[in-house]
Design brief:
heterotrimer, A mainly alpha (about 150), B mainly alpha (about 140), C mainly alpha (about 180), B: 5 helices, elongated, C: about 0% strand
């Protein structure tokens, strides 16, 4: 018994791709937040938006208009594709695991640097590097011709 | 922690239903939407709600850290154990049809225990992460 | 009608994302992230992905928001004004979006029953599942039985995340009553 019969209801024009339009705009927006904003928590929110748009990318093609959710019942013959649902279930849970680890790192960074802005952290690291280098050249003057930081 | 009467009464009324709903989602995952992940997260959300209203130390008294860490490990062990059980009973790793004389019942049995393992791990991990974040703030100077 | 609902929800999600980009108040950003996750769960439900919608609503809109608010409480900050305009990042993002939309024509058209993803394995899952497993929920059957190995890996990933957070946030102060 083939459960895949459906009348021809496909959208063959550009409107058949509208879910992809929004998916790619969301994806690029998430990527922009990660790259262009310096606050670490906001970067993590942007990463979440990026991941969520990828869920849409998978689940969009799985839908069949006129079908139903993939729970077998005697009244329905056409079902949405269950395989992307399974893959995205895994992806969602892995996404929250990554988010939790990222947030734990942000908390430790805040305690170490007293800031969660990327520029402040890089400046503090640079400053610490320069101080360490200055200390080395002060105690060992013969190594001072190694170039500065 | 709050002395607000409405919040405490509403929490006392809602939390049993949240936990019951989590169990419903777990056991009816075969017949409708649901399964181990959703059930574990909803159960953890109920306990987090309790911690938000009644205080972290009270939640720690109800669900201690040892229990949560045990839950985390037992879930993964249960899942892998069902897999190894399939191997012991004659099939390959994670074969469920060997778990019973009737292969369909074997599949049901395997799926039941596997989903339970998943729910235990997910619930334990979500609760543990929340406890660690919440305790970090109060232990700060 | 389906498509209209999905389209309006997707447009609301675009508006939410623009607000997230523009806002500098981190509490507002996190709450908007929760709103975005709820809208995504509704879109997923409109796309007939009921299991995924339930997971996204509980995990994405529930637990993620709680954990981020917990981390924000520990960090106590606002986003500071960016020092330079992100024109390069914006240009690269737009170029990337254009490139992706150019490649979009290779993807399956919305609701096309002859698309490649509906052939091969999935008819076997849908047709043979009543004979082999006999559960109404196909997603649970595929997740726990046909693709059980992936789910074991995923459970291990969640466990590893828990262990990682314990390792990162454990306290070892002498004299502190709570040594977790």
């Amino acid at each position: 018994m083939d459960r895949r019969t459906i009348e021809n209801q496909t959208d063959m024009s550009a409107t058949g791709y509208y879910t992809y339009f929004v998916t790619f705009i969301l994806l690029v927006a998430g990527l922009f937040i990660v790259v262009a904003r310096g606050n670490l928590i906001k970067k993590l929110v942007g990463l979440g938006i990026f991941q969520t748009s990828v869920y849409l990318l998978y689940i969009g093609p799985a839908k069949l208009i006129g079908g139903t959710a993939p729970i077998l019942a005697t009244e329905w013959q056409v079902y949405s594709n269950p395989l992307p649902h399974v893959l995205i279930l895994t992806a969602i849970v892995v996404g929250v695991a990554t988010l939790a680890l990222g947030l734990a790192l942000v908390v430790r960074i805040r305690e170490a640097y007293d800031s969660i802005e990327e520029e402040d952290i890089l400046a503090a690291d640079l400053h610490a590097d320069q101080l360490a280098h200055a200390q080395v050249t002060a105690t060992h003057p013969q190594q001072s011709n190694r170039g500065s930081a | 922690m709050t002395n607000d009467l409405i919040l405490r009464i509403v929490a006392r009324l809602l939390i049993p239903f949240i936990l019951l709903f989590a169990l419903y989602v777990q056991f009816h995952g075969d017949f409708g939407p649901g399964g181990g992940f959703q059930a574990g997260v909803i159960f953890a959300a109920g306990i987090i709600f309790h911690a938000l209203i009644f205080g972290l130390s009270d939640a720690r008294r109800v669900i201690p850290d040892r229990l949560i860490e045990t839950m985390m490990a037992i879930g993964v062990l249960l899942y892998a154990g069902i897999g190894v059980g399939g191997m012991i009973l004659g099939g390959n790793f994670l074969d469920y049809f060997v778990l019973d004389a009737d292969s369909i019942h074997g599949q049901h049995r395997g799926i039941f225990w596997v989903e339970l393992g998943v729910a235990l791990t997910v619930c334990g991990v979500m609760l543990k992460i929340f406890y660690m974040f919440a305790a970090r703030g109060s232990a700060d100077d | 009608m389906d498509s209209l609902i999905i389209l309006s929800l997707l447009l609301m999600m675009l508006v939410t994302v623009v607000l997230i980009i523009r806002s500098r108040n981190l509490f507002g950003v996190i709450v908007l992230g929760g709103v975005y996750s709820f809208l995504m769960a509704t879109v997923l439900f409109a796309l007939d992905a009921v299991d995924v919608a339930m997971t996204e609503a509980s995990v994405g809109a529930g637990i993620s928001t709680v954990l981020m608010l917990g981390a924000l409480y520990l960090c106590r900050s606002e986003e500071s004004k960016p020092l330079h305009q992100p024109w390069l990042a914006l240009g690269i993002s737009i170029a990337l979006a254009a490139g992706l939309m150019f490649g979009m024509v290779g993807l399956p058209v919305f609701s096309d029953p002859n698309a490649a993803i509906h052939q091969q394995v999935v008819p076997r899952y849908l047709n043979d599942m009543p004979k082999e497993i006999d559960l109404p929920n196909v997603v649970t059957a595929v997740l726990a039985s046909y693709r059980g190995y992936d789910t074991l890996g995923e459970t291990t990933v969640v466990f590893t995340a828990g262990v990682g957070v314990i390792a990162l946030l454990r306290r070892r102060r002498k004299g502190s009553g709570d040594d977790q």
